[in-house]
Amino acid sequence: MDGCNHPVPMGRSGDNQLVQDEAAKPSRASYLSIRGLGKRYGAFAALQDVDLDVAEGEFVCFLGPSGCGKTTLLRIIAGLTSQSEGRICQAGLDISDLGVSERDFGIVFQSYALFPNLSVARNVGYGLEAEGRLDAAKRRARVDELLDLVGLAAARDRFPGQLSGGQQQRVALARALATSPGLLLLDEPLSALDARVRQRLRLEIKALQERIGVTTIMVTHDQEEALTIADRIVVMNEGRIEQIGTPEEIYCEPATAFVANFIGAMNLLDARVVGERELLIGDKRLACSAAFTGCSVDEEVVVCVRPEDIALGTDDRDAEGAHDVRIVALEFLGPFHRARVESRACRTLTLSVDLPSSVVRAKRLRVGSAMRVVLPGENLRIFPRGRSQQFRAGEGKGATI
């Protein structure tokens, strides 16, 4: 069982190397260990060189765009799909070649997969009946316990068709937990629900997971969902892991241009390195506290800065990082407005800037208004341009030049 009982540093060689700091590693004992996992369909590699440790009791989200390999990875963990190479160990046991029925997990699918002709109680207890390890009285007690846990005790005799989508998903969750699995797998369980139900249910799932302490892996394409409930997020792209970290690390310290542009709103700006920790953005020099890893003087780079990190400037035209801009679009988002601004000196330089709604009202800002903004040198992320081109204009949610 090589690879099951000793840690291997997370990461891979190449441009999209994982964050290596200690905070990105599980702080508890590793419960699920994946090493060198790959999946090929002919010449197409759906997964490549996946290394991952999940701690016991941890809630991990696989996050990425459609086709990135996150669902394939979940299905391989469950044994529903076989890997082309690599090993998987759960609680020290090599499960790489075990069948579905031999693995210790419960799973909840996007489609709920409930039996329409069985009552809620029978759906929840289905796995217990199939196992045959408990007598009828103990099965009923376990079902009642789970229905109470998910708030559906009064619905035990109803049928799935008589329930709302959120209630059906609670039934599916209770069924997955009925056999007390060591690992809970959630395959985009909330994507079929409306926004308000999804928001409420994700908090309920997190609270339930913390209460029972089951190790959980959830696949999602919803960034807000992952940022809200995950202990750690695994960001995937084109079959590889781009970064593993806490929600704060993923959002505030993206390791690659892809992660920077995929998570949240982001401005991508062309710049040139003109000195040690000094950039030229448009016609302005700007000191940057971020390390220019892999970048040399005179190299063209991509600068990433979030809209909320750009500040309103003062009357000092020569202030470092200050740009005189004009508002070309203004979007009301409740507590703040997102302004699309264009540099008055360099019209190819455009930015998205988040402004408190109170400031917009007080200054009477509108489309066409002039103002000054300041790029914060301490909050910039720098990436070599050649390795960032695929994440440029039109392919992400942030503004770009």
| CATH-defined fold name of the largest domain | Rossmann fold
CATH architecture of the largest domain, by name, is 3-Layer(aba) Sandwich
Helix-and-strand structural type: alpha+beta
Tell me the distance between the termini: 51 Å
Order of strands across the biggest sheet? 6-7-8-3-9-10
Molecular shape:
elongated
The top-level CATH class of the largest domain is Alpha Beta
CATH superfamily of the largest domain: P-loop containing nucleotide triphosphate hydrolases
Strand percentage: 25-35%
What is the CA-atom radius of gyration, in angstroms?
A: 25 Å
Taking the sheet with the most strands, its summary is:
6 strands, mixed
Total domains: 2
What is the β-strand count? 20
Helical amount: 10-25%
Number of helices in the DSSP assignment: 10
Report mean pLDDT, rounded to a whole number: 86
Name the poorly predicted regions: 5-24, 388-401
One letter per element, helices H and strands E, the order comes to EEEHEEEHHHHEHEHEEHHEEEEEEEEHEE
